[in-house]
Structure formats: C-alpha cells, structure tokens
From TrEMBL:
The chain crosses the membrane at residues 33-53, 94-112, 124-146, 152-179, 200-222, 248-269. Belongs to the binding-protein-dependent transport system permease family. Residues 1-23 are annotated as: Disordered. Its main location: membrane. It is a multi-pass membrane protein. It holds the Pfam family BPD_transp_1. CDD domains: TM_PBP2. It comes from the Bacteria. This is ABC transporter permease.
Length: 284
C-alpha cells in the first residue's frame, strides 16, 4: 500500500504532457463550392446596385451609364459582332502577353545574373515604365501604321515591367538554406540555377505574370483606341462617337469578362505547374 501511494503521488506531481495538435498544412477542403458561389454573389450584388442606381432611383443619367436591360439588349441585337471584336482583342492580349512574358523573363534573368547589368539598365527600365503609354500611341501609329503591330507594342510596353521586376526579385531572393545546401553538394552554377534558384523563384515570377495579365488587356484596349481596326476598344470608340452608350458599355463589360477568364486561366496554369506551393504554404 505504501508503494502504491508513492506511485500515485509521483504520477500526480509529474503528469504526462498532453500531445500538441499539429496544424495541417495544405489546401483546405470544402471550399470548392465557395469558389463558385462567392464570385457569383458578388456579381449579383454589383448588378443589383447598377439596376438600383440607373432604373429604380435614376440617379445616373442613361447617357453616362445605361440600365442593365439596355446593355443586354444592345448585346442581343448583334451578338456576332461583339464576339468577333472580343476574339480580336483576346488574340492581341494573349499574343502581347506571351511576347512580353518571354522578354521580361529573359531581361529579369540578365539583371539577376549580373550586378553590373542591373545597375546599368534598371534606371532605364524604370524611366520607360514611367512614360505614359497613351502618349506613345500617335508615335506608334506613325512608325508602325494601323492594325495589330502598334496594339501589340502597346501591350508589350504596358505589362513587361512587372514581369522583369518579379523575375529579378525572385532569382535574387533564394532562401539561404537552399543556397547553402546546393553549395554543400558541390552543385555547379547551372545545376544550382536549375534545381534551386529557378524553382524557388517561380512563385514570385507568377506574381508578376498575374499582375501583368490585366495590364495586357488594358494595353490592348488603349492600342485599339489609338490604332485599332477591330477589337473591343475600336468598338467603344465607334459606339461612343455616335452616342450609343449601351453598345460601349456592353463592350466594356466584355473586356472585364475576358480579363477575368484570362487571369484565372493563368492561376490554373500556376497551380498545375507549381503543385508544391499550395502544399507548403498556408493562408492561416
């Protein structure tokens, strides 16, 4: 009995530590429905506010913002024309984005590889990015004529800088432990770049790409304003010139929808190309 009492006192004085729950890192389940419903709910709220301001309260003149029904009627009257112009703007946006992405990544690689090149050309890149691109429209028309060439040039000028910046930043911010691991394994410079630096920089590069994608759509529309012979920007100019604001707003909405689809296509590409990012990070 005395021995049993001593054991009970010892167990009471030194209780066993409770296991600490380890938070699970990775994608949360049950959010697929919210991914679809929440954007739809936001769209319905926006449409409700639009209808309230233009139809119910009539605080905005139809010449500035027509009611949703008028915009829908304008699209339903000539859907083929809208889809044709949407296709032209989409092609210009995607082609210009791909060209700017390729050049931007190459320039970012060069800046990250050489501190001399970085110091030489970074001020020039900042100056080019700071120039108002709409001011270059007439010059592009004079140099390249009308059509897709000045539009693609406008897309390139508007969206290449975030890609350059994100690429250079990602390649120069490799985690110290990964860089030390590559050195300890006697990896060559190319092996360290291919196996360590580039994979570590890819999430940052995709940030720049996602910033540049909406800018590409803006550049395409600005180029169509200045030198386009087709596209949604061209349609907005034509409709605005005759006071057809419903058609102009239908084109503006199509630009927004096109940008949303292209952006989430890029997000899907990121998830397919970088599956480890979601498994190793958490939003809290």
């Amino acid at each position: 009995m005395a021995e049993l009492s001593k054991r009970q006192q010892a167990s009471t004085a030194c209780p066993e530590p409770m296991p600490v729950p380890v938070p699970r890192v990775g994608p949360r389940r049950g959010t697929g429905l919210g991914v679809l419903l929440l954007p739809l709910a936001g769209l319905l709220v926006a449409l409700g506010v639009w209808w309230l301001l233009t139809s119910a309260l009539k605080v905005i003149h139809p010449a500035v913002l027509p009611p949703p029904g008028a915009v829908l009627s304008a699209f339903a009257a000539t859907p083929d024309r809208f889809l044709e112009h949407t296709g032209d703007t989409t092609v210009e946006t995607v082609v210009g984005f791909v060209l700017s992405s390729a050049c931007g990544v190459l320039i970012g690689l060069s800046l990250a590889a050489s501190r001399v090149l970085e110091r030489m050309f970074t001020p020039l890149l900042v100056a080019v990015n700071a120039v108002p691109k709409i001011a270059l429209g007439p010059l592009l028309v004079g140099a390249l004529g009308w059509g897709q060439k000045p539009v693609l040039t406008m897309v390139f000028l508007l969206c290449f800088f975030p890609i350059v910046l994100s690429t250079a930043a990602g390649l120069t911010s490799t985690p110290a432990d990964l860089a030390e691991l590559a050195r300890s394994l006697d990896a060559s410079r190319w092996q360290a770049f291919r196996k360590v630096r580039l994979p570590a920089a890819l999430p940052q590069i995709f940030v720049g790409l996602k910033v540049a994608m909406p800018l590409a759509a803006i550049g395409a529309v600005i180029g169509e304003f200045q030198a386009g012979e087709s596209g949604l920007g061209y349609l907005i100019v034509q409709a605005g010139g005759v006071g057809d604001t419903a058609t102009a707003w239908a084109a503006i909405i199509l630009i927004g929808l096109m940008s949303i689809l292209l952006y989430f296509a890029l997000v899907l590409l990121e998830r397919l190309a970088l599956p480890w990012v979601r498994d190793t990070t958490s939003r809290g």
